[in-house]
Specification:
- With 372 residues, the protein is of the alpha/beta class.
- The protein has one domain (5-367): NAD(P)-binding Rossmann-like Domain (Rossmann fold, 3-Layer(aba) Sandwich).
- 35% of the residues lie in helices and 17% in strands.
- The protein contains twelve helices and 19 strands.
- It has a seven-stranded parallel β-sheet with strand order 3-2-1-4-5-11-16, sandwiched between helices. It has a three-stranded antiparallel β-sheet with strand order 7-6-10, with no helix packed on it. Strands 17-14-19 form a three-stranded mixed β-sheet.
- α4 (92-111) links the parallel β4 and β5.
- The model has no long low-confidence stretch (mean pLDDT 94).
- Bound molecules: uridine-diphosphate-N-acetylglucosamine (UD1).
- Residues 83, 85, 125-127, 182, 185, 213, 226-228, 231, 243-245, 250, 252, 288, 312, 315-316 line the site of uridine-diphosphate-N-acetylglucosamine.
Length: 372
């Protein structure tokens, strides 16, 4: 599909802004609805807002503004959300409001316009899985363990076990039962399911993307509640050692924002992904320690990470995507290697200043009993 009228909620954010750029580049007419959350953007609008997109500064909970934003729109990308996992555990109303109510408002306004929309694409998250999928090497079975018990974590025993058998992490597919472990994660599950349910009922072809750990340029470096790449970068740029929870050998699937954008554009080209939820990742595990080391090396800082042996409430040990479904349905293939992606991130970091608010945020989490 080309030359479409497209609305991107959260289009000033990290992922949304890259998506807007790609859509404008592909010849679409793009409108952004974004409330410019202070924690993410500070008090000035970010320079990366695409000047060739129309910008509406409003909250996704504001029905009148959302209605205005939907005028003439054929495709909606719903990327607006509050995104701090730890913070969501005490600013519960804020997260439920932005993520749940915001999606509800958007959907109510959309269904007032029957037949107008060709596609709704919603940003979901790997966080809805909880722990990733594992294989029990003794039985060969795929297992879906719950969070590690507090007693295990207190003794600094980090890996997943079934009795005495150490479980092996394997790719997590969409078949894994959902077990969200934070308010943020529950709200992402809600967003995904509200969109798919309403989309199905009103014949709005809807696609939900479960993003894995997204990194790249324009990450909110001064937002201490966001992902580990941005947090470690902000620490290192201020000559501080990154703090590693557990032992640093926990693994994640770090996917570059360009690959996330690629998946979002593919969803426009086919109906094969309609009414489906799909992982968007790389399928490759990387440990948190590796990330700290790669960033320090790339920034030319001789700073070893601080492995403190503490742990965060609700943290999972391993989760890496199985991308068979999106490969098959959309023909998606991740194209950015971690090496290239981090190199580009580092080049961008050299042009940025990051206010290091990490210590204060960690202290806040500790005080609330969320870091132990
Ligand atoms: C969570 C969400 C994910 C969201 C992401 C960024 C879950 C399961 N997933 O991912 O959807 O996109 O947050 O908001 O909730 N770490 C440190 N030191 C730090 C910060 C983090 O060691 O200063 C460790 C964490 O303990 C964790 C790993 O790095 O083991 C990754 O943390 P993070 O980047 O916050 O992402 P997730 O928890 O994987």
């Amino acid at each position: 599909m080309s030359g479409l009228n497209i609305l991107v909620t959260g289009g000033a954010g990290f992922i949304g802004s890259h998506l807007v750029d790609a859509l404008v580049e592909a010849g679409h007419k793009v409108r952004i609805l974004d409330s410019l959350v202070e924690q993410v953007h500070g008090d000035t609008p970010p320079e990366h807002i695409n000047p060739n997109a129309e910008f509406i500064h409003a909250d996704v909970c504001d029905a009148e503004a959302v209605s205005r934003a939907l005028d003439g729109i054929e495709v909606v990308y719903h990327q607006a959300a509050e995104v701090g996992v730890g913070q969501s555990m005490y600013e519960i109303v804020r997260y439920v409001k932005a993520n749940d109510l915001g999606t509800a408002v958007l959907l109510e306004e959309m269904i007032k316009r029957p037949g107008q929309f060709k596609k709704l694409i919603v940003a979901s998250s790997m966080s809805i899985y909880g722990e990733g999928a594992y294989r029990n090497p003794a039985t060969g079975e795929t297992v879906y363990p719950q969070l590690r018990p507090a007693s295990q974590l207190e003794s600094h025993d980090w890996e997943l076990r079934d009795g005495d058998t150490l479980l092996e992490p394997i790719g997590t597919s969409e078949a894994k039962p959902l077990f969200p472990t934070s308010v943020y994660a529950v709200s992402k599950q809600d967003q995904e399911q509200y969109c798919l349910a309403v989309g199905r009922a009103y014949s709005i072809p809807t696609v939900a993307f479960r993003y894995f750990n997204v990194y790249g340029t324009r990450q909110a470096l001064s937002n201490p509640y966001t992902g580990v790449c941005a947090i470690f970068s902000a620490r290192l740029m201020n000559d501080q050692a990154p703090t590693i929870f557990e032992d640093g050998l926990q693994s994640r699937d770090f996917v570059n924002v360009k690959d996330i954008v690629r998946a979002n554009l593919l969803a426009l080209e086919t109906d094969r992904g309609d009414y489906e939820a799909m992982n968007v990742g790389t399928g490759r595990p990387t440990t948190v320690k590796q990330i700290a080391e790669l960033l320090a090396k790339g920034l030319g800082k001789d700073i070893a990470p601080d492995i403190v042996g503490k742990y965060r409430e609700g943290d999972i040990r391993h989760c890496v995507s199985d991308i068979s479904k999106i490969r098959e349905l959309l023909g998606y293939e991740p194209q950015v290697t971690l090496e290239d992606g981090l190199a580009e991130l580092l080049e961008w970091l050299a042009t940025q200043e990051a206010e290091d608010r990490v210590e204060a945020a960690t202290a806040e989490l500790s005080q609330k009993g969320l870091v132990k």
